[in-house]
Design goal:
- The complex is a heterotrimer of chains A (278), B (293) and C (358).
- Chain A has 13 helices and no strands.
- Chain A is an all-alpha fold.
- Chain A has one domain (43-277): MetI-like (MetI-like fold).
- Chain B has 293 residues and is an all-alpha fold.
- Helices cover 81% and strands 0% of the residues of chain B.
- Chain B contains 15 helices and no strands.
- Chain B has helices spanning 2-19, 23-52, 56-62, 67-100, 106-113, 115-118, 121-132, 139-144, 153-164, 166-179, 182-189, 194-223, 226-232, 242-251, 255-292.
- In chain B, helix 7 crosses helix 9.
- Chain B is globular, with a radius of gyration of 25 Å.
- The chains are: A mainly alpha (278), B mainly alpha (293), C alpha+beta (358).
- Chains A and B meet through helix 1, helix 3, helix 4, helix 5 and helix 6 of A and helix 1, helix 2, helix 4, helix 5 and helix 6 of B.
Chain lengths: 278, 293, 358
């Protein structure tokens, strides 16, 4: 273990802690995850391709990625507004709102699922007002969008908020002394600073939404080809003991997650280094 | 008195043009934020408790006073009691190695630790089914020796541990990295043993973040649905956790009981959020004190 | 453009930052606001810029009242201590910012803006850096960009808030000389805020010394250094030895042996008033032998020979007060001082301030 050390240290416990951490993490996460890929390798390429491009799977991708993207963008807009309001304005109830923003993180997804369904069902709190307008939310793709927007809400707020907080007031004052009005200052000075954090937040909300299961299945109606998300399709295949089908779709989802995680890491790296001294 | 308020008012108006927005714009933004939060946070929150109490307090309490509900609560507590300490130990060990030493592959490890959060919960359950399920790698061997993992407690534990692995570590790593290793090095040069150094120097410095990580880990462990759903088999009174129990009740059109159990989980979420706010205040004032010194 | 500040008062909560401040700055002057942190100098500067609004009092620029005028209408260039450069813009874009945000009707053509930016970058000697980002520049270079950016809008008035405060000593010195030359070239009315007395005395035509929200003294650098108007100014501008004492008739009995009196500062009849006597370290003369009756005795405690001058720390025999004396190297060599020796001290020049009875 100590061969890995780049420089010696007087502090104790390196071998023990890293050894334990690697052992535990491999056992719990790495080995089971790699099992997924090994299992896929028992499929021929044609079999794999057939499963992952089957119309029902394609429809589920479209819904999952489409609704996730729209939800993430909606959160991009409103998340930025919420972050702005929380950082810049003082109003009663501000700290309560600030604390509650994380509710979608903390609330179990099943609870979110049944609650959103109850609210947006045709006889629900909000659904009953939408029904006469011809808008059906629960048990339609729109319901999927609502659930995926809900669970992505905190991400943009929590990535944009600290950047806004650290923005140097002097820079805005400098713009004002140079004759810029508020809108010009916002567009030319503030937005460029927020941009990377906003993109990171949107990417995180998107990544979370793509894999989401619990909050969606109650409100979606789960009609194949129409309102069935990919994680649910995996679940269905498992329940039918179609392990190969579930595995193939699981690999697709996992690869998407890897790519998204990589993209988020790059975004974070970019936003933290772009103004650094070369 | 009157003139004072006028001056203050004028001052506010005068400053507006400079580094904040005009009053109408500000009101519009606050309104938009509240509208969005009302739709997605406040109404759901109120709805949970309203639905749970639809049949009054006795109906609410009855929802818990049956064998299945109590078994679900017991199982959830048991799962959290196993998963959280294990992940806390892992988090502290990983954070210690990562924050205090320079080693090959460190950045890769930091990225990997967050992986379970990026993976869909359904896949978190799926991988264990592929390993231990009836058609899994070890399935036949396990059946021979009459060891049940999938559709039993060990499977639920494994899936829960998987989805909650990163929580403690990701709270501690950035904090311990920013704290550096000078204090620990001082302790060692003063003759402290490794354990003394950890208990007397490291632990006091990280206790609030550790607590926060544990609270987050616990909230997720008790509330996890997708991963547990895959491996549990939904056997009432045996492998049903609280979130799974909520699902069963809801699908049986027993909405009041479903929301009653959900309200317990919601209270847990609210306690978690309050703890977060309190700990943030605590650490903020602690860092203020430190920088003042 | 001239500046006139009339009875300006500013409070933050219950704390009075500026207390009835009056100030007149002539067109083309470079004036330094000098004082310790918290004295109100930055607040005064921000009020002039329009970044803050006074609670009472009025501001006139070139004879026109601007107290309620907004910052964007004042045409004032402001240079911040931490540069406040737009870090996502190149140096050229930073300098062009003030021109690019002008209303379309007043905005120069793109070509003209580019020319202007190059002119300004030449002025601040940064032509080669036009396409760099602020993070690629040194602190001194960044502050020069900030200055060029402020000058781009052709301000009538240039305000500098501790412009060299974040730079190291050597760069500070270079930049303030450069600023002085630039000012002589441009003749723009300027106000520079600083807590560094050396900087104020070197760069400004006139110095305004401020303390706790009040103006203590206004004068040329020579005036404020040679004839400090208040004990605060004396102490703030350079090192000083302070003797507390009582005036009895026309003699000072401090808690040290008699010092020769200067009649002008101690009027007859000033009996039994508390007073302080200030003597700069280089105004104290050391002798091995008693040469006149007004010397007092002191023990050499510590000698520091580093630098161009020798600093000697002594303890006054009678009062046990510690004093500091500055000698030239020659004088120190002639004296052949050793630590522990007793020498005779004599003030060549000093200033006495009475302390008002409370």
């Amino acid at each position: 273990m100590h061969l890995l050390l780049k420089q010696p240290s007087v502090l104790p416990g390196f071998g023990l802690t890293l050894g334990f951490a690697l052992f535990y993490f491999s056992l719990i996460v790495l080995i089971p995850l790699s099992g997924l890929f090994v299992r896929t390798s028992t499929l021929s390429w044609e079999q794999f391709w057939d499963i992952v491009t089957n119309p029902r799977a394609m429809a589920s991708y479209q819904l999952t990625f489409g609704a996730s993207l729209v939800g993430a963008l909606v959160n991009g807009i409103f998340g930025s507004i919420i972050a702005w309001v929380l950082v810049r304005y003082r109003f009663s109830g501000r700290s309560l709102v600030d604390a509650l923003v994380d509710l979608p993180f903390a609330l179990p997804t099943a609870v979110a699922g049944i609650t959103l369904t109850a609210i947006y069902a045709p006889n629900g709190w909000i659904g009953r007002y939408l029904e006469p307008l011809g808008i059906k939310v629960a048990f339609t793709p729109l319901g999927v969008l609502i659930a995926l927007t809900f669970i992505g809400l905190p991400f943009v707020v929590r990535t944009v908020q600290p950047v806004l907080q650290d923005l140097d007031k002097e820079v805005e004052e400098a713009a004002a002394t140079l004759g810029a009005n508020r809108w010009q200052t916002f567009r030319a000075v503030i937005v460029p600073e927020l941009w990377p954090a906003l993109l990171t937040g949107i990417a995180m909300a998107f990544a979370r939404a793509v894999g989401e299961y619990g909050s969606v299945i109650f409100i979606a109606g789960n009609i194949p080809l129409i309102s069935e998300i990919t994680p649910l399709l995996i679940m269905t295949k498992l329940e039918q003991y179609d392990y190969s089908g579930a595995t193939a779709l699981g690999v697709v989802m996992l690869l998407v997650s890897f790519v998204l995680a990589l993209a988020i890491n790059l975004l974070q790296w970019w936003s933290s280094t772009r103004h650094m001294q070369q | 008195m009157n003139s004072v308020t006028i001056i203050a008012d004028k001052d506010v108006q005068w400053k507006e043009s400079l580094t904040t927005e005009s009053t109408p714009v500000r009101r519009l933004l606050i309104f938009a934020a509240f509208l969005y939060l009302t739709l997605f946070l406040f109404i759901p929150l109120v709805a949970i408790f309203t639905e749970a109490l639809k049949h009054g307090l006795s109906g609410y309490i009855d929802s818990f006073l049956n064998e299945d509900a109590l078994a679900a609560i017991r199982l959830t507590l048991l799962v959290a009691a196993v998963a959280v300490p294990m992940n806390a130990v892992f988090g502290v060990a990983a954070a210690w190695a990562i924050a205090k030493f320079e080693f090959v592959g460190k950045q890769a490890l930091i990225t990997l630790i967050d992986m379970p959060l990026a993976v869909s919960p359904v896949i978190s359950g799926l991988i264990y089914v592929l390993l231990f399920g009836a058609q899994g790698w070890l399935g036949p061997w396990l059946a021979e020796h009459d060891i049940k993992i999938i559709f039993a407690l060990p499977g639920i534990l494994l899936a829960t541990i998987f989805v909650t692995v990163p929580f403690v570590a990701r709270e501690l790593i950035p904090l311990m990295q920013s704290q550096g290793r000078e204090e620990e090095e001082a302790a060692i040069t003063l003759g402290a043993s490794g354990w003394q150094m950890f208990v007397r120097v490291t632990l006091p410095n990280i206790k609030w973040s550790l607590l926060y990580g544990v609270i987050l880990c616990n909230a997720r462990a008790m509330g996890e649905f997708g991963a547990v759903s895959v491996v549990s088999g939904h056997i009432r009174g045996l492998t049903n956790t609280m979130p799974l129990h909520v699902e069963i009740l809801y699908n049986e059109y027993n909405a009041v009981s479903a929301f009653a159990v959900a309200s317990l989980l919601t209270l847990l979420a609210l306690v978690t959020l309050s703890a977060k706010t309190l700990i943030e205040r605590k650490t903020a004032s602690a860092t203020r004190l430190k920088s003042q010194r | 453009m001239s500046i006139h500040v009339e009875h300006v008062t500013k409070r933050f909560g219950t704390f009075t930052v500026l207390n009835d401040v009056n100030l007149q700055v002539e067109s083309g002057e470079l004036v330094a606001l000098l004082g310790p942190s918290g004295c109100g100098k930055t607040t005064l500067l921000r009020i002039l810029a329009g970044l803050e609004r006074p609670d009472q009092g009025r501001i006139f620029l070139h004879g026109t009242e601007v107290t309620d005028q907004r910052i964007t209408e004042r045409r004032v260039g402001f240079v911040f201590q931490h540069y406040a450069l737009f870090r996502h813009m190149t140096v050229a874009d930073n300098v062009a910012f003030g021109l690019n945000v002008l209303p379309r009707a007043q905005r120069p053509s793109a070509v003209r803006i580019q020319e202007k930016v190059h002119e300004l970058l030449r002025l601040v000697q940064l032509q080669a850096m036009a396409d760099r980002y602020p993070s690629q520049l040194s602190g001194g270079q960044r502050q020069r960009v900030a200055l060029a950016r402020a000058l781009a809008v052709e301000p009538r008035l240039l305000l500098l808030d501790e412009p060299f405060g974040a730079l190291d000593a050597k760069v500070r010195k270079e930049l303030r000389r450069w600023l002085r030359r630039l000012h002589d070239e441009l003749h723009i009315t300027g106000i520079i805020v600083t807590h560094d007395q050396e900087e104020a005395l070197e760069v400004a035509d006139r110095v305004v010394v401020m303390h706790q929200g009040n103006v203590e003294q206004i004068g040329t650098p020579d005036e404020v250094y040679e004839n400090p108007a208040t004990p605060f100014v004396y102490q703030f501008l350079g090192d000083v030895n302070v003797f507390h004492g009582r005036a009895i008739q026309e003699r000072t009995i401090a808690n040290l042996p008699p010092l020769p009196d200067v009649d002008s500062v101690l009027p007859a009849g000033a009996v039994d008033e508390r007073e302080v006597t200030f003597v700069r370290p280089h105004d104290l003369e050391l002798n091995r032998y008693r040469t006149n009756s007004e010397q007092f005795e002191a023990t050499v405690r510590y000698i520091l020979t580093a630098g161009s001058r020798v600093r000697v720390e002594l303890v006054v025999l009678e009062s046990e007060q510690t004093i500091e004396v500055e000698l030239t190297k020659e004088r120190y060599r002639d004296l052949v001082l050793r630590e522990g020796e007793v020498v005779f001290v004599h003030p060549r020049h000093r200033q006495v301030f009475k302390i008002p009875q409370s």
